[in-house]
Specification:
By secondary structure, this protein is an alpha+beta fold. It has one domain. It is 33% helix and 14% strand. The radius of gyration is 14 Å and the shape is globular.
């Protein structure tokens, strides 16, 4: 398979990815196959040679109560909270 070189994303494209990721976080989307938004954004990025992949994240809280989203470390749906396009 030929290596796909990625280009830097435009501000408009990055905003699209950020909005999609916010939706995935807010709605705890775990399955990429059931989300039309995931496929729309992924296909848009692939068409522009800007797709990098996606990861599985969990929701955690710092001591002061602020949220952060580390990698889950597993693809088991029982151990992650949502997917994120990167």
């Amino acid at each position: 398979m030929e290596y796909m070189r990625t280009r830097k994303r435009t501000k408009k494209m990055q905003n699209l990815v950020d909005e999609a990721n916010k939706y995935f976080r807010d709605h705890n989307v775990k399955d990429s196959h059931s989300s039309d938004l995931f496929w729309f954004v992924t296909n848009k990025l692939l068409a522009n040679n800007m797709y990098h992949g996606y990861n599985f994240h969990i929701l955690k809280f710092k001591n002061d109560g602020t949220e952060y989203y580390p990698l889950a470390g597993t693809a088991d749906p029982n151990h992650y909270d949502f997917i994120q396009i990167w």
